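Mods, move this if it's the wrong board.
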Amino acid sequence: MNKNHVSILIIESDSDGLKEIIRILDANSINTLIETAEDTDVALLKIIEGNHDIVMIEYPTKGKTGAGIIKFIQSKLPQTTIAFVAPSKDYAAEAIHHDVYDYLLKPIKKVEIERLLEKVLLKKSNNPLSRINELIENKQPDMRLGFNTIKGFIIINPEEILYCKADGAFTEIHFLNKSIELTFLFLSKVEEILNPYSFIRISRSIIVNRNYIRKVYLKTNTVVLTLNGEEFEIQGSRLPVRALGKLYLD
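Not the wrong board. Structure tokens:
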């Protein structure tokens, strides 16, 4: 990030409060690049991809990821400044417990945001190499995705996924190592996330990694995935399986 800019992610569920923060930031003389998220679950992917200078977190947090996102930022992006945005001083002790020392009260005052921006900009100007080193050290060789699960959340490479299967309002993610994670997402949302990668839907309830497709049986609408010599037969639906066959034969 350019040292003359401050990149900010605002995690805020109240639309009016969010608009007011953005209004104050836009009116400031310091150049800011702003992203927003309505809760910590939405914010997780943006944090993984963004390397923000500031993450302003509504506290108490909203979302299943919860306070885990604070630990994630502190361990993976230590140069990022975390600021709590709280309705009262009642959570100040919790902020200190999380090693968060920037604490803004709602409604946020212009002078408080200006003080935070100036602090972070000075930090970047005085130590520009630390930001470069941080980006290099934390850069992953492949794209990483985050999914909320019944146990917390996982960060994975999409190529680690063999196939995904709908389970009501949830989705089973089946990995190459034969482990299974249950995520709090409909299959349609998982498909949207995986759309840039090599995945294809073969029925209303199944999407598969195209890189592991080895056989397609049109009579039975069956797709066979092969991994390390082991075959996995996945039952598809007539139209998508025929479209799959046409894709490879044309």
